[in-house]
User: Which sequence fits this backbone?
């Protein structure tokens, strides 16, 4: 064998083996820090919450004993849990629906070409960038029975004081209104992006065919916007489902339990009564619900893609 | 947001007014005169204050005027003992304590404990028994410290199974504050003595057209919010919490007395209370009083100095005070205290005890007089400096009522047992529902009775 030929071949093999190793492990190596941070900040807490949910850890049992699924059995029979599920459903459903309708309406309204539209859109986004606690404190003042602006306006009109946050029939609606005020811009933003990314040809064809505005909206805009609508609704639903700050500041979950959502109830169990195990079990239930939301979104998106 | 009635705003107000009220003699306390002489009151104790010099202790206290008053003397404590103090202030110190205890972090040495949770924490071995420290002559000069001088009924809040676990550093009881000018205008010359009388008085002074409301009570839910006031009323109406506390914890939440008391509260607030009463916490009620919109309130005695602060109150000099109204069940001023205790896992227990002994001593209580006249010492409530500092509060009616209330206050005002917070919170929801009109007092308390009975069964307090 010609050695002059053999030598370089061996070197090439070594190099290719090294490159193969580098190609294989470098990405893992580069990703490792991010994965570790993610694991520490997300996976570990989730795992720990699941573990806690299977124990009776709390102020009466600081070390906690393993009790299997007992906490979940207790949840099943806990009327306060079911009441908070009802409130959470009303809050999430009411807020997201109102935000969607308003957000879509505003997006359609501002979808044309007119002067000052850019500024108007920017202003529309302001509520969304505000801290929820500040938003809630501001609205609490507006709702206030003594110095509140709304009651002042109503009194000038000769109408009574409805006690926005104090009236069990109004409190949840008042809280939803604040969420709608803050998060309608989010819907508007996503739906505007969707409207602007639609192809123009079908609309031109529809116009040529003499289709009316309503028919165009129903048969063209809505189907073409389907994906973005699903994303917007599910993102907002997940976020509304987890809302804590606005409700806590506005009503503390009251009057009574009128505005006590699952997050508020879970907070009481974990951080006021220090039933950590039970509170963790409530969090696991919420985690499952959010996971279901996400699964629905992925399913619907995949169906569309297919 | 749930806010403790011992939280921020009121103490800050009290601070201002007391600075103005105290006598020149009181103002020139040790804090104002740094130097060796300010250590003299402590050096007269026959213990070696420096036996733990160089050690560091961590202390968490709630955000209130007493905490700030104590904080101003920490440098003095360091000079006296050589102990370094890492002092932290929290809006909700109970939560901070519990997070430390339950997570096992064990970072705190001295804990400020809500008297309502002492039984629970003792059962969990969170608190160090103080008996061995009190009886150790190397650690405590019994004569100098004179623990017997600390208000006995409040000392009882820190005693479990015959052993002392915590000392009442900042005690409080409740009373009625009323606008003397408005009451006088309506022909009333004294504080209401019964709840019927109070409602009748409120009817006379209420002037809704001018936004003046006769009665202010906490409606906001929370074991430490509306229940705290409601208990005085419910007890007076013959109500309570259990069949026979502590031997029989069968709940009696929907008893006749409790329903009648809640009905009284609902009627009083609906007819003579400010709008939005169901969501008013202590700070909203106090603000209403300071701004001249609420003519009488049931409140804790630390409110007295605060309402005389001209920077925050528009009603300075217009208040009078009276013992909480009576009923068939008696007269029930509240009893509560912030207690000081040692974390059972502390590695600097000796140093922690020296701090507690120092902070609860008579000289420190007097040195805080420039910020608060409230003391845990029996003898000091008769001290001329405290009398002088209290003279202008509620037109001189405050101090006699404080003394009388301290005399009749009962350590079992609210039942001190481990499940209290959860039970109290559930009860508070019923009270708020009744005030808001969501349910009748009977229906709200019936529902609370069912839930609390379940809670107690789940907590193994009943079978």
Assistant:
């Amino acid at each position: 064998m010609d050695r002059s030929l053999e030598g370089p071949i061996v070197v090439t093999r070594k190099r290719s083996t090294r490159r193969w190793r580098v190609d294989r492990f470098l990405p893992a190596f580069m990703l490792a820090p991010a994965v570790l941070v993610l694991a520490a900040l997300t996976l570990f807490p989730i795992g720990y919450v699941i573990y806690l949910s299977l124990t009776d850890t709390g102020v009466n049992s600081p070390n906690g004993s393993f009790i299997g699924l007992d906490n979940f059995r207790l949840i099943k029979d806990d009327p306060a849990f079911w009441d908070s599920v009802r409130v959470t459903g009303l809050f999430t459903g009411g807020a997201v629906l109102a935000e969607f309708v308003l957000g879509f309406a505003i997006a359609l309204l501002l979808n044309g070409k007119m002067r000052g539209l850019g500024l108007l859109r920017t202003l529309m986004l302001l509520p969304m960038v505000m801290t929820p606690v500040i938003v809630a404190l501001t609205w609490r003042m507006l709702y206030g029975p003594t110095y509140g602006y709304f009651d002042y306006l109503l009194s000038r009109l000769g109408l009574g004081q409805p006690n926005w946050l104090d009236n069990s029939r109004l409190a949840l609606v008042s809280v939803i209104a604040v969420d709608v005020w803050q998060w309608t811009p989010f819907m508007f933003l996503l739906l505007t992006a969707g409207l602007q990314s639609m192809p123009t040809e079908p609309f031109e064809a529809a116009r040529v065919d003499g289709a009316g505005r309503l028919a165009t909206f129903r048969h063209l805009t809505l189907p073409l916007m389907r994906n973005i609508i699903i994303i917007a609704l599910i993102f907002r639903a997940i976020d509304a489902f987890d809302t804590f700050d606005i409700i806590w500041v506005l009503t503390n979950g009251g009057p009574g339990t009128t505005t006590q959502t699952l997050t508020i109830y879970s907070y009481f169990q974990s951080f006021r009564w220090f039933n950590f195990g039970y509170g963790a079990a409530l969090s696991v239930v919420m985690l499952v619900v959010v996971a279901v939301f996400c699964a629905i979104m992925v399913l619907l998106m995949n169906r569309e893609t297919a | 947001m749930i806010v403790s009635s011992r939280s921020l705003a009121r103490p800050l107000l009290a601070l201002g007014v007391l600075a103005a009220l105290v006598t020149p003699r009181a103002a020139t306390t040790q804090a104002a005169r740094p130097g060796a002489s300010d250590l003299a009151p402590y050096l007269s104790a026959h213990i070696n204050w420096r036996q733990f010099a160089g050690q560091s202790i961590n202390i968490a206290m709630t955000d209130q005027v007493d905490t700030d008053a104590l904080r101003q003397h920490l440098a003095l404590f360091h000079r006296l003992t050589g102990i370094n103090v890492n002092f932290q202030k929290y809006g909700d110190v109970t939560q901070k304590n519990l997070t430390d205890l339950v997570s096992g972090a064990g970072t705190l040495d001295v804990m400020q404990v809500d008297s309502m949770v002492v039984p629970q924490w003792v059962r969990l071995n969170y608190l160090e028994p103080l008996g061995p420290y009190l009886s150790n002559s190397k650690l405590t000069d019994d004569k100098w410290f004179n623990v017997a001088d600390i208000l006995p009924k409040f000392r009882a809040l820190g005693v479990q199974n015959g052993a002392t676990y915590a000392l009442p550093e900042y005690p409080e009881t409740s009373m009625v504050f009323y606008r003397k000018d408005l009451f006088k205008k309506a022909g009333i010359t004294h504080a209401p003595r019964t709840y019927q009388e109070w409602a009748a008085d409120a009817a006379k002074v209420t002037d809704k057209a001018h936004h003046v409301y006769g009665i202010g009570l906490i409606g906001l839910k929370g074991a430490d919010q509306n229940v705290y006031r409601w208990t005085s009323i419910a007890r007076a109406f013959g109500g309570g919490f259990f069949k026979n506390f502590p031997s029989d914890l069968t709940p009696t939440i929907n008893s006749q007395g409790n329903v009648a008391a809640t009905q009284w509260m609902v009627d009083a607030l609906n007819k003579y209370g400010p709008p939005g009463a169901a969501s008013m916490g202590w700070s909203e009620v106090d603000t209403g009083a300071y701004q001249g919109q609420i003519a009488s309130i049931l409140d804790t005695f630390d409110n007295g100095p605060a309402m005389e602060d001209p920077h925050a109150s528009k009603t300075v000099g217009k208040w009078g005070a009276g013992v909480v109204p009576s009923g068939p069940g008696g007269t029930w001023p509240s009893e509560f205290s912030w207690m000081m205790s040692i974390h059972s896992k502390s590695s600097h227990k000796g140093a922690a005890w020296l701090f507690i002994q120092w902070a609860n001593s008579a000289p420190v209580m007097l040195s805080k007089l420039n910020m608060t006249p409230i003391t845990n010492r029996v003898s000091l409530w008769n001290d001329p400096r405290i009398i002088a500092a209290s003279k202008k509060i509620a037109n001189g009616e405050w101090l006699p009522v404080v003394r009388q209330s301290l005399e009749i206050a009962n350590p079992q005002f609210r039942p001190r047992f481990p499940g209290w917070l959860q039970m109290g919170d559930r009860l508070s929801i019923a009270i708020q529902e009744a005030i808001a009109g969501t349910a009748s007092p009977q229906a709200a308390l019936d529902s609370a009775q069912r839930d609390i009975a379940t809670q107690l069964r789940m907590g193994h307090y009943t079978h």
Q: What stands out?
A: The interface with chain B takes residues 57-60, 62, 74, 79-80, 144-146, 151, 161, 163, 165-168, 248-249, 251-258, 268, 271-276 of chain A (CB under 8 Å). DSSP finds 13 helices and no strands in chain A.
